[in-house]
Amino acid sequence: MTVVKISEIGEFGLIGRLAALVGDNPPAELVIGIGDDCAVWQAGDQYLLGTTDTLVEGVHFLPGDAPWADLGWKALAVNVSDIAAMGGVPLFALVTLALPPETPVDTADALYEGLSACARDYELIVAGGDVVQAPQISVTVALIGRAQTRDGVPLLMRRDGARAGDVIAVTGHLGASAAGLRALRGGASPDDPLPRAHLRPDPPLAIAQAAARLGVTCAIDISDGLVQDIGHVCRASRLGAVLLATDIPVSPETTAAYPDDALRLAATGGEDYQILLASAAGVIAALNELHPEAVTVIGNMSDRRRGSVSILDRTGAEIKFPSPGWDHLARKPE
Amino acid sequence: MTVVKISEIGEFGLIGRLAALVGDNPPAELVIGIGDDCAVWQAGDQYLLGTTDTLVEGVHFLPGDAPWADLGWKALAVNVSDIAAMGGVPLFALVTLALPPETPVDTADALYEGLSACARDYELIVAGGDVVQAPQISVTVALIGRAQTRDGVPLLMRRDGARAGDVIAVTGHLGASAAGLRALRGGASPDDPLPRAHLRPDPPLAIAQAAARLGVTCAIDISDGLVQDIGHVCRASRLGAVLLATDIPVSPETTAAYPDDALRLAATGGEDYQILLASAAGVIAALNELHPEAVTVIGNMSDRRRGSVSILDRTGAEIKFPSPGWDHLARKPE
Fold first, then answer.
1. Most CB atoms closer than 10 Å: which of A68, A167, B152, B177?
2. Residue A256: in which H helix or E strand, if any?
3. What is the pLDDT of residue B333?
4. Does B144 touch chain A (CB under 8 A)?
């Protein structure tokens, strides 16, 4: 009998199997189940959002790379990013800290301080959690939020909410997180600007909420890499995406530090925790009027080449990258 | 400089530090924060409950001890137990599966099947989650539920809801889980009754909900050990507890298998996931009329010896156990 390993089906294959096993016969209260940035659940007159993410020592971070306070911040911020991607309002977090008993108390204190600082900045509360023993440190956050509503209708941005002809726009700049990780590995200080972008992501929650209020119906956060994340939108919305490489807002610090690699880092590096939106051009323009230079248009959704992402250079030729982004469980390319 | 380790402050010391760091200035919506079985959050006309628990390979289970489907079941059931302890209704779960990429897909499928079976039995839905790479398998579940309400008032059972003179009662029988773990380690089949009690805990959700509707205001689930868990009630309610050893409902299978140790297993073994209630004697009697033999009275809450738990034998002499239950992070006794 052949044993099939997780690495052969990858992260998204595994999520698909979970969805298939648990997905039959959902109750009416479940508005969105597995497969978007958050689950959405109707509770009375509220639409609740739920998301969870984990950072594992040795996998998502190495002890030397990041001050513990930064890890606490990031463990919560990546969940805020998921709530932002739905256009929602974060409410309360449950935090699980797994750690070896010989961990210094100072380490846990620093982690909690970073977590607490992030909670204050995004006006949410750590309402509970769990501490467990494990061979290495990991932090799991489950974050509950609510959708904004208008006349009782939830203003949700979904992966399947794009339409052909929508423009694609992203908040902020891209590439600084992957560049920051590279700089850290090369010995840069955690306090330098590029490492900061990697260690303390700052999801654009207010801009995302404004987008949902303006009527944007499709968004995703850029966690695994722009190309891979927009691929999720393409598959969910059954459309194709065409991006213009020259329009991608590569972070200036990334271009300065790694000029030959900056576009690849911005397109596939991941962990920028910016938000990608797809909407009518007029809505995106209105968002930039409300929040000057909040978003940059980088392409269009198309009903051609459904499910695929094309990145074109100045001449119209397609640019190919070695990988679209991260799969957290797939066998890594050699 | 002396480095203080987590093992020196233990699980409850660490939780206290988290509570202190994040606990200032809570919003009005936070009804109960860190320190009960669930956090409680008022969202519109609903009172939401949130809880999270983790099972880690090599810490909470050994690969040889438990079929993977049982671990999936248990990872969810222990969270259902927290919702039951508050008298609530489970709604939806977020599941994080951490595992090495070389894990067989069959293992993940079996885990998900057990999880899914538990979700069906307790009429809740797995609405989302995360899969991450880690050096060993762990399952983290965050479970969201709602409180039952009457005339808009939440019917919550809290650790600090006991009054002097309340009787103390427990659902079901105790000791079978710890006895089952011992039997498993001794080579018993996972399908034998004692191992089943350890591997597939079955929290008495309907009885707990009925108790909350009858007006019981104090409960806790028995996860770490009866003596330790009732100690949490004593400290939160600023009362003492006196238990009669002969009234503790030791599971008959535990007495049969380990006659010399059965009382200790029932009093301090933990993981039975039964519910302990403190309430007026008449309310407990009414519960047993609705659900025959649902609960057994084992003692009283007292305003003497506040914060402490006494277990008395037939002669009125106090019985001392080597440990009240589990601290998941403390240095283990030699």
1. B177
2. helix A252-257
3. 40
4. yes
Average pLDDT, chain A: 93
Closest CB to A92 among B39, B58, B129: B39
Q: Indicate yes or no: CB of A129 within 8 angstroms of CB of B52.
A: yes
Position A112 pLDDT exceeds 70 = yes
> What value of ipTM does the predicted structure carry?
0.93
Cβ-based burial of A316 (10 A; exposed 0-12, middle 13-18, buried ≥19)? exposed
Q: Which residues of chain B have pLDDT under 50?
A: 333-334
User: CB under 8 Å to A153, separation ≥6 — which residues?
Assistant: none
pLDDT score at B3: 86
Test mutation, A105, A123, A143, chain B, max B CBs within 10 A:
A105
Q: Do A98 and B133 touch (CB under 8 A)?
A: no
CA B15/CA B196 separation, integer angstroms: 31
Which two three-digit tokens encode residue B11?
Answer: 């699980």
Minimal C-alpha gap between A26 and chain B (Å) = 7
Amino acid at site B195 = P
Residue of A nearest to B111 (CA): A18
End-to-end CA distance of chain A: 27
| Percent of chain B clearing pLDDT 70 (strictly above) | 97
pTM for the model stands at 0.95
Instruction: Indicate if the pLDDT at residue A261 is higher than 70.
Output: yes
**Of B179, B197, B188, B194, nearest to B263 (Cα)?**
B179
Q: Annotate B116-149 with b (16+ C-beta within 10 A) or e (fewer).
A: bbbbeebebbbbbbbbbbbbbbbbbbbbbbbbbe
| Chain A residues touching residue B58 (CB < 8 angstroms) | 135
The alpha helices in chain B, defined as continuous H runs, are 6-22, 68-85, 105-121, 176-185, 193-199, 205-214, 226-237, 252-257, 262-268, 281-290
B247 vs B241: CA distance, rounded Å: 14
